[in-house]
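Chemotaxis protein CheB: structure, please.
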Amino acid sequence: MTDLPTSRPTAAIAPRIVAIGASAGGITALQKLCETLPLDIPFAIVVLQHLPPANSSMLPTLISRWTAIPVRIATDGSRPDTNCIYIPSPEHILTLEHGVFRTRAADGGGRRPGIDSIDAFLESVARCPGPFPIAVILSGTGMDGTAGAVRIRQADGVVIVQDPLTALHDSMPNAVIQRGIHDHILPVSAIAQQILMCIEPEYKRPSTSIDWPNDVSKTLDRIICSIRRQSGFDLSGYKPSPLFWRIQQRMDARRVWTFADYSSLIEDDPIELETLSRSLPIHVTEFFRDHDAWIVLKRDVLPDLFHAAKKFQPIRAWSAACSTGEEAYSIAMLLDEVSQESNGQADYTVFATDVAPEILARAGRGLFHESSLAGVSLARRAAYFYAVDQQFRIKRPLRERMVFAPHNLILDPPFGGIDFVTCRNLLIYLEREKVDHVLAALFSSLRIGGYLFLGKGESYHLNNLGFEVISPKWNIFRKTSLHFGTSIARLPTRPTTTTANLAAGEQRIALEQAGLPSALIDEAGSILRLYGNTAGILSLPAGEPTHNIFQLVSRNSSLRLKIAVQQAFSDHEPMNLIDLDRRPQDPASVGVRLTPLQNPAGAWNRMFITFLPEEGILDKPQAPDAPSGEADGQYYPEASERWRDDDARITREELEASREELQALNEELRASNSQLNASNEELNESNYQLREKIDQLNMQNRVLFSGEVMTLFLDRDLRIRWFTPAMQSVFKLAHSDIGRKISDLVSIFDDPAFYPDIQDVLHATESREIVVASRDPKKYFSRRIHPYQSVPGRITGVAVTFSDVTDRTIIELKLRQREIWLNAQMSAFELAMTNAPIEHSLGLLISALADGTEDDRRCAFYIAQGDGLRHVVGMPDEYAKCVNGFLIAEESLACGLAVATGKSVITRDIMIEPRWKPWIWLAKRFGYRGCWSFPVMETGGTPLGSLAMYFAEPREPTPIDLELASLFTKTAAIIIARHQQTRLQ
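Here you go.
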């Protein structure tokens, strides 16, 4: 199968990577570690903080103050170098692939299990060739870094953990230590020296952990095998991080501290195994998730499907990994709306599949709480839902368009002849090999012209693999070829049964034949699994086959059992039921033990029923009353009629399920038949594609020359071969310039990396992108350089494109400026909470005030002491000596006056202000004309000090200046007040 070219960089070996992970309380630990590093290190350091994105952007500034080692931002496509410290952008999750950094957007800041920042980077480093990596886990809450440390150890790397006794928060270090995946436990002051020792040739790993990786891998395999026997859910293709995260959740809930002990627990406790199996699938879905993406679908995709649909042939949509069904129903609603807008010219069917049968059963009911309908407009609620039992159910006309069927994308063959398939947010949990496998399966299911809709975080370059890009932002693609890469996509096949599989099946049968007869059911009474020998207790009645336990017990006991189950679910407490009749062939009665179970989300939706011999096993408590139904052998028509209606409803749902299963089986047969016909269609498709390509080239040529597209093509000698007219706004180009070297021309923008980036693209086949600014007038352009390959593997030139991003960049600069201010305040708070000197915390605010603006302002903080002011930080010591003790009074000027009155004092020009005449010598000596002073006051009005800003030229404040001063004086008030309270204690 063809590998997906997510970037297709040339493989390169990165230098040794030392990854440092920290979370809450990690600032102090990072400072101590950086201060103990030598000036020249033979490795690259990557610092990852498990914090909200807004808290990370001040980290490069802070680390630059703690060490002389260069600090850089790890950008997409850059290569790590030795003797450098790299910080990821706060908006992205960082990985290392083929020796270069790769970034992808964090999922709205809510980094989900298995793709957290520290784990993601450690796992990617473990996969890269080169010197063994080193992971350092510092202070932090949670378990981020634990799963990544597992992969580092499996790659023969070293794991160093901060001593929990020295950590402000010990959850992250302890999560690694308790699972035995560490090599060294050290105080922060000793970690730098240990890193240097680890890279020495004579370094030997401590003997206590040499055999750990194989042991844990085998243990994880045992757990996966137990899950496969329990539920048939094969997790072999999933990334380890989500599995470790959920297994660790269950381990913490059951207070089990090693994987080996937990593996033994699930082998002995079938209820725990069932709970784990139900908690592993990651079901994250909602109606019309990413609302703008659905607008694009309705506008640009679905009308094309209806327009191309043949008469009497329905449009076929497939929601793979549909979870609880919200997305599948969203597709159906959109198809129905477009169908009505096109006067119902085409029919449609939506196939919804998932690997978990019980989740699929919930989806098929189409019943949702009101909280789930946040993304559904009122008009759609009225059109497609009706209210029942304080919930909302999909109306039958829409449900009849749906086919729900169990399906495993990794093992089962895909459906065929599909017009539209969506598979969102599944691929991020799969290993790369399985991603290729699943994408090939989805490709094979689509007809030519069909559409593929992936999740926002699943960006793959599919345009060279038989797809064209419809929406790069929302990852919508259109199939244009029978070829997936360089070969026809082949349907995946289910693996053949091996001796190991047979042995596992025999073991499962043996487990279920042993012990007391038991059953696991859901809220509706459907049997999910049987244990032991239930012959004589449960048996199929005449008529339609059923899995409902209330129909499998004797008729005389059905109502009593149903009432008891409902009461146990309601009370959330186990209960006993005596004298349950067996089937007529075995008249002896049995006792029943009902144990309600709670899932990880807190819902009581499972019941474990154990059938016990009557003699001596159960005490005989009062059986639950039968409300208006059956008691003491009497029969009440009202209850009987109610239960008969329920049975009729359940039977109808089972008939619908059977119809859907048969239809799904028919779809699989059709898929196999479509694959057999693919070869016959290949020649016709090639001719069609050739004509289509010619039309596309003509259309693209017209678009390029008629619009504002700025594109320039250079050969390997950097000579101009082709450009669009719009490019003349960036370079002074004329038609006679074709054949000239680009270096001979003068550009309107400042871009020192322009020519080096072109050379890098020519030699490394990697695209380069940067934002550059023009000189006059001030404009911003997004500059991108792409390699051009005439044949695969041979680069014959580069394409350079520019796009005007002035408005967006100006907004981003303003937002970044505000982010710098916010981060400075938060970092200052954190330093103050650690009782750092007040000069340090207020110094962070001063740096942000000076660095976050484009003028030459200088700033300083003063603290009130008695009747005078003391300079704290900002101005030179000579200046402080001149102004320390300055009187706080209404007769004073600048800071003294601001503190005395509690109001800002704005002096635009010191030279014309009468109050400043005695102090003009001071302003001249230290080079400022404008002076603004702002009081620092407690909430109750007590003056604490002042903030001063000095300017070389006369200056009036803008609204942003006043807002900035207000924010920083409030922050300073809290820090100064805490400092004073600490000194009094």
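Notes: The chain has a mean pLDDT of 77.
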